[in-house]
Amino acid sequence: MEEPTGRLKGFTTATGARDVHVWDRAFLPWDAYFGVVWLATAVFVLGAEYPSLPYRVPALALLALMAPWYL
After folding, report:
1. What is the DSSP letter of 5?
2. In this structure, are residues 59 and 53 in contact, taking their beta carbons and an 8 Å threshold?
3. Nearest in space to 34 (alpha carbons), one of 65, 70, 59, 62
């Protein structure tokens, strides 16, 4: 691939657009967000008084299937 010249070269270097690991840096916040939302949802499902426990446990099991699917 051809290297950028002039003003464009400085721009791509400053923004990291040509960096090999730009995707690794971009997805880390989304992975953390998924983990926090998943954990909060699990706490709310287990901590709710309604519906009763026989309905909440399968809901949590289905929620648990999301983690390996996401990974």
Report:
1. -
2. no
3. 70
- What's the pLDDT tens digit per position in 24-56? 677 888 889 989 999 999 999 888 888 888 899
- Rg from Cα positions in the chain: 21
Decide if 3 contacts 11 (C-beta within 8 A): no
pTM: 0.58
> Which residues have C-beta within 8 Å of that of residue 11, sequence separation ≥ 6?
4, 17
CA distances from 55 to 20, 24, 62 (A): 46, 38, 11
